[in-house]
Amino acid sequence: MTHESITISNYSFSIGDKSILHDISLAVNGGEFLSIIGPNGAGKSTLIKCLIRINTGGKGEISLAGKPLESYRQKELACLLGYVPQSDGRSLPFSVEEFVMMGRYPYLSPFTPISHRDEQAVQDALDLTGTGHLADRVMNTLSGGERQNVLIAAALAQGTRILLLDEPTTFLDPKHVAAVHRILKRINLERGITIVMVTHDINAAALLSNRIAILKEGRVAFEGFPEEVMRNSVLSGIYDKSFLFVTHPVTGQQLIVHEEAGK
Q: Following CA atoms 16, 57, 199, 140 in sequence, which dihedral angle do they give, to the nearest 10 degrees?
């Protein structure tokens, strides 16, 4: 895709009398990896839910692939956007293969059998996420990291060109955080899939993303490349604290050092 995948123009969203997003303007190019960071309550997850139409009724404009968001039928939208929500621990009494096949719902009908193309899409998603060995396991028996990788596989099985993720590594241990990050970077670089990721992990945003957008109090407070974001002149005003930085020994990227408690 050479055109912009997502264009948000002067978009605002409220729940009742509470205003959550204020005049958001943001563009995401095809094939880009954009991370959205910011303090708690900044409106990050709300914005993602507006893009996937879980939240509706906002003011302003959102366009996907050059068309207004509201013009898409639900199955059309599902062919374009994949969504991986925050882990909520809900019961999923399906095998991994069954669950990933559910990602093919935009193409399936109650009156037609599963096609070879559907089976191939599921296998490809399992292979890409390294979850093929889990195919016969029941979702409820998986670890948090395994489950998150399968959720990503289900989104990929949709055949979408844009993947939206809301805090994909919350509650995961460092090993599984690294595994999720590898998968996301791989599908972005090798498949050209556009990724928009909401995260509290500023270091992950700096290492994975082409660009970072920062929300504060429902507004875009800053937008730029990782090297522009990872500065106290930017972050201290966003988070109301100063940060210590070190240089990554391989990439040269500035990263935050978390001070020990009490120091």
A: 90
| Angle made by CA atoms 135, 115, 67, in degrees to the nearest 5 | 95
pLDDT value of residue 261: 46
Structure tokens at 50: 């507006």
- Secondary structure, 3-state, 233-247: HHHHHHHCCCCEEEE
Beta bridge partners of 56: none
Residue ranges of alpha helices (H) inside 192-242 are 202-208, 226-229, 232-239
Please write the tens of the pLDDT for every residue from 62-94.
999 989 999 999 999 999 999 998 876 677 899
Q: How confident is the model at residue 12 (pLDDT cuts 50, 70, 90)?
A: very high
Question: What domains, with CATH codes, occur in the chain?
Answer: 4-257 (3.40.50.300)
